[in-house]
Amino acid sequence: MKRWVIVTHTHPDADAALAAWIAARYLVPSDEQDRIFYAFVPAGQGFPGENDPDTTVIAVDTGGGAFDHHDEQRARDETISASSLTYQAALSAGNSVQHLKPLVDVVVAGDHGRAPEWSRLLGVHALISVLRNRHHDYDEQALRAMFEVFDLFNQSLVMHASLEREFQRCVVPVSNRVAFIQGGSSAVTRYALEQGYALILFETNLQRRADGCASVAVGIQRAEGAPMDCRDVVRALRALALDSEGGAPPGALEEIDGWYCHPSGFFAGRGTSKSRANPSPLDGAVRNWLLQTLVRLVDAQLRPTVAAGRSAGF
Ligand SMILES: [Mn+2]
Distance from the CA of 102 to the center of ligand 1, in angstroms? Predict the structure, then answer.
């Protein structure tokens, strides 16, 4: 019976553990996961049973092979470690592991004494350090516990990478504070606000809500902590739509009047689960007017010296 042995050094650190995890998850076929064994050797050594024809040995962070970086040539290179070498091998084997790069980068930095403070306090280095102490005399238990940590980071990074792709696909910057999102999820709206936009105009595709009504959600959402209230923005939009000099196209007032204003001021809009269903998409002329007007309103609001003189009602 064929088997795999993943070897690393005793008392594995973040680099050894992450390299072992990448090897297990991506260099061993998924239907052979139950044939993986782990072995721990003093740092620098290889695995004694390396000549067994039924055993494929992958040594990481020790043994001097492809996934070790302690030889003369590589030891001084601060851009690599066992994790990055294993990651590159997983990439070269055709695995889609690009989402793991932030994790690999922080572990490589840590392996060269440059772990960022946030990671030592609240990130991967903090967790690995606790697990190393907890399972000090039981390397395999330590490694398996660390694998659970990497499985969780993996899930989180997969979600983050898919949000980033959605962001690239759906978010249209209108100014550096205002963006338009068409056909995106509420998660990508939150993500865009976290990237620094102060206000988002969003329009979803036609969808069937939980109450069975078909609806297109349209509205605005402001960033957490941005000094503006969407109820004031809606009041200002309404005043401009009513003003014959405001340049609002036909339908602008009806659009704004269909919006529900959340009492906390973070959101105003229509078609979401808590507001009236409306299957109509946003009219193109109304959308352009809204975006131009929102850019002006947000600029006035977020430029304190100008806003102070003009902020009546906004
Ligand atoms: Mn290392």
Answer: 17
